[in-house]
Write a structure and sequence with these properties.
By secondary structure, the chain is α+β, with helices and mostly antiparallel strands. It has 2 helices and 5 strands, in the order E-H-H-E-E-E-E. The protein has one domain. It is about 25% helix and about 20% strand. The chain has a 3-stranded antiparallel sheet. Strand 2 and strand 3 form a beta hairpin. The chain starts with a strand and ends with a strand.
Length: about 100
């Protein structure tokens, strides 16, 4: 197989682009419906934003998330603001 650029290997297929567009639209619909999102590592939690002001690490007048029944889904986990690197299968890359 010919080697490709890093950018071309990251590019989504048409099917993937459509799926990602649908995900972005669904996220926007959630926000517009009043959902308040909170992420803890690889868990995206959904709260009724009409009732929940915020989620933070302060116990004062708050309720521990682990004691509540919350809608959630597992997602990719983000981390700090340092540099991140993409690694490709089969060493296919020639250049950026």
């Amino acid at each position: 197989m010919d080697k490709e650029t890093a950018n071309s290997l990251c590019e989504l297929t048409n099917e993937q682009k459509k799926a990602f567009i649908n995900l972005k639209k669904a996220y926007k619909r959630c926000l517009n419906s009043g959902i308040f999102f909170h992420q803890i590592l690889d868990t995206l939690e959904a709260f009724n934003g009409n009732n929940v002001l915020t989620v933070d690490d302060t116990p004062d007048n708050g309720y521990c998330i682990q004691t509540l029944n919350i809608d959630y889904m597992k997602i990719v986990c983000g981390w700090a603001d340092d540099d991140h690197y993409v690694h490709f299968r089969d060493n296919k890359v020639t250049d950026v």
